[in-house]
Design goal:
Strand order of the largest sheet of chain A: 18-19-21-20-22-23-24-25
Oligomer: homodimer
Distance between the termini of chain A: 54 Å
Radius of gyration of chain A: 25 Å
Strand content of chain A: 25-35%
Chain lengths: 504, 504
């Protein structure tokens, strides 16, 4: 069906309403909008997302002027935090050069004629722009290792890492900055929970001394720590996750192996639980202990849990992300298969754990739910049980802006939709499959689960559905979330014919 | 929430509309309406269904006049086919005398003052009035045995059975009659399918001779068979059902045992499948081979199938039907337990079959779905797996007219609703339970299944849901219906830990 028509209006406090005019036939998507000291600024996209225009708006009459036009043979990314402008009129934007998403901070004329040079180097993948504070642009990036996300500041030709790093380099960092003060948050593998510090420029040592909490100097900047913001978060019921990182297979897939806290190599054989997301825009393998708490809980129930980020996941550059163009199924699934094989080989070589490759389950939510159902449908030789949470089952039913980015228009590329969807595979189901879906899901609508269930029923294939009343795309209700974990383990034990857990 | 407000209008072909006036505060339910040679006639009921008024309508002005008022300490039944009137002005109605629903054919004055005597005897349970043709009233009744439903004709003080009975007495008969011609349909245990004959009065032997098809005289009437209406119905894929009838336990529960067609006593032990409806207004144990085709199919998969009609089911009189007042759960469940025990004892004594009482499943639809879920929740000592199709799970969600008949108003009798409903029992689930429900069910709405599933999830109890897209209360789509049978057997085999079927 037709997309929603989007318009933009400048509304004054005096009641005035000025429509903003742009060529919405060429660029129907309003991808980003901001209002800075120089006025409103927007980014608009063509339906195929291969054309993106950066437009400055005259708030008085709604007229727009073109600041920049980008094209890409696959699609253009919407990077969080841009477009933005410095008070001095430089435009903050990103561009892909040599497979790297790079930061642009440039005068409008340089931006428009393409002469603006990136201010970040090749290999530093800009993930988001965090703040524009005066002439300083604070941004997050992965440099080399996608599992690490650091914070950098660019100002007047200088690039500096912002980090307090009490636990050494690495981790997942973020920050916001305004009026020269930075609030910096770090997660790392060294501990669960977040550490938050307030940084201020060293301006007057007399004043600062009274507030100094932590004498760490701040790398490469003239900032120092002036305060710590405490965390009152509950301690997780699982201990520090027991994670081994691997670069798995020929694609060096970033992979985490999570073993039971109580496990001793050489004692028992562990069934395997693959626990992926595996789709665009979300990374599961990061240098943050918090990211593995649920996986550790599953591991403690008696599984070797494997989390692997395959092709299409963020942080490894634009080519990696674009390698799934036209097929959301096969690369994602093949990479899970490769990661499993590589982890098993590593475990055997290093005598790290004894994995039972005859008992491999896979679970996931959203794209991960799609991937789990896909796994048991197309690779029953590898995967012996699947739990599909809120899965996309037919890409024709999902969000046009998301889906057409990867598969194009369904009328033009029906084959790509067919091979990326699950319904035609339903008659092949030969493994236990549990489908979980929130009935109030307004992102992946319940029709996805119902169509798959109907197709399975039409093919006479037994399966299990758990409909979650009043639950949207994320089961945030505490009792639902807890019982979902317990029921998933029950299902896996039954489906993989595992012994009952030791009473503990 | 409030009931729908119902009104009645007499609409003329000239466009006139005359509202019909009655005391809708006292009797808000319009239970039946007919228009005969004397004008429109209606039956209205109080909300508690303990008061029923029979009203004649003056079509010219919409005024009503009271023909009869009935009361009952529990509820009054709506018997199909009445009220009606003969052309001579006699009113056809029913009344309960000595626990028997009996036919009244009386002048309005006798009816109103209560002096009208029933024209049918004690013990003949009138099930429905089929036709009023001149002074002849054709009706269906069970006399003695509720599994048999026969057709009788009442005319001018005479009562005569209408039957051609080629297969001997017994069976499930029905008929319609107009202008002296009767179309009579019989089902019996002697064959699957229906046999339909056209009967006419013997008026002139010369004329009739040319049309006589069958020389059977028609019992007790001056009718004879003049035509047979052929049946082109498909032959069932199961053979003649292998049914043993029992009167089970101290309540003489009408019960059918269906054994596998291939079964030989003394060879293998059979798991048991209870296959009840068990609620008001629907009888499963009837003298009709067609009634056991699905049960025979289940039996042929390797089960001893038991169908038992407990308290509340029709055909055994008003006291039997009213014995469930205030509790839709315990009598229904207790009677299934009793029937199972009695069948098992009978099978052992008669060496009819070896039943495995450690492997007892129960399946049912609608009230039978409710009963199946109830069985595994409250009697896991007896029932080891349940399949609940389109179950009522909370009687507060079901039809007020049906539910309040048995449980009264939910605000007045909350305790009766609580003990008759399933949600509070959810935390007790310890047996495999499969819930099947049509998402388009406009009778037992999907909320019933979802509330039970939610309560089970909240209690962390594993269960399986099969949502049927586009399916209403009855899964009539052929492929859905077939696969539902197959998936139910798969579920029972897995839940009862049965061996795979012999390949055949």
């Amino acid at each position: 069906t037709a997309n929603a028509a989007v318009s933009l209006l400048v509304a004054g406090l005096d009641g005035s309403v000025v429509p903003v005019a742009w060529d919405a036939d060429a660029c129907p998507y309003l991808a980003a909008a901001d209002w800075d000291a120089l006025g409103p600024i927007i980014a608009v996209q063509s339906r195929d997302q291969r054309l993106m225009r950066l437009l400055a708006i005259d708030a008085a009459n709604g007229q727009t002027s073109l600041l920049r036009e980008d094209t890409n043979p696959h699609w253009l990314d919407i990077v969080p935090g841009v477009p933005a402008r410095t008070p001095g009129g430089k435009v903050v934007w990103t561009t892909i050069v040599d497979g790297t998403t790079r930061l642009l901070v440039a005068d409008p004329a340089e931006l428009a004629d393409g002469s603006a040079a990136p201010v970040t180097p090749a290999g530093m993948q800009v993930r988001s722009v965090l703040s524009v504070d005066g002439d300083t642009v604070l941004f997050a990036a992965s440099w080399g290792e996608p599992a690490d996300i650091g914070v950098w500041a660019y100002s007047s030709g200088e690039l500096a890492r912002v980090s307090i790093e009490p636990d050494g380099p690495g981790g997942v960092h973020t920050a916001v900055r305004s009026g020269g003060t930075t609030v910096f948050t770090a997660k790392s593998m060294a501990r669960t929970g977040a550490m938050t510090r307030v940084l201020r420029p060293v301006v007057d040592q007399h004043v600062v001394d009274q507030h100094v909490v932590d004498q760490h100097a701040v790398d490469g900047t003239a900032d120092e720590v002036v305060a710590t913001i405490g965390s009152l978060a509950e301690r997780p019921i699982v201990g520090e996750p027991r994670v081994t990182f691997l670069r798995a297979g020929r694609r060096q897939l970033r992979t985490a192996l999570i073993l039971p806290s109580w496990y001793e190599p050489g004692t028992v054989t562990l069934p395997v639980l693959m626990d992926p997301y595996g789709g665009p825009h979300s990374q599961r393998v990061t240098a943050s202990a918090d990211a593995y708490l649920s996986s550790q809980w599953f591991a403690d129930q008696g599984f070797a849990v494997i989390v692997a980020d395959g092709r299409g996941t963020p942080g490894r550059g634009s080519d990696w992300e674009r390698s799934i163009a036209g097929d959301l199924a096969s690369p994602a699934l093949d990479d899970q298969v490769d990661a499993l094989a590589a982890v098993a080989e590593h475990c055997e070589r290093e005598r790290l754990a004894d994995l039972d490759l005859a008992k491999v389950g896979i679970r996931g939510w959203s794209f991960g739910g799609f991937l789990s159902a896909l796994a048991v449908l197309r690779r029953p030789d590898v995967f012996h049980a699947g739990i599909a949470g809120a899965p996309v089952t037919d890409w024709r039913l999902y969000d046009t802006h998301y889906t057409e980015r990867y598969l194009g228009h369904p009328a033009e590329n029906p084959g790509d939709y067919d091979r990326s969807s699950l319904l035609a595979d339903a008659p092949k189901l030969s493994r236990p499959l549990m489908i979980i879906h929130g009935l109030a899901d307004d992102n992946v609508v319940i029709a996805h689960a119902l169509r798959l269930s109907s197709a399975l029923l039409a093919a006479g294939r037994a399966h299990s559905v758990l409909p979650l009343t009043g639950v949207t795309h994320i089961a945030s209700q505490e009792d639902v979330a807890e019982n979902l974990l317990l029921l998933q383990v029950d299902f896996l034990r039954s489906a993989l014919d595992l012994p009952s857990p030791p009473t503990s």
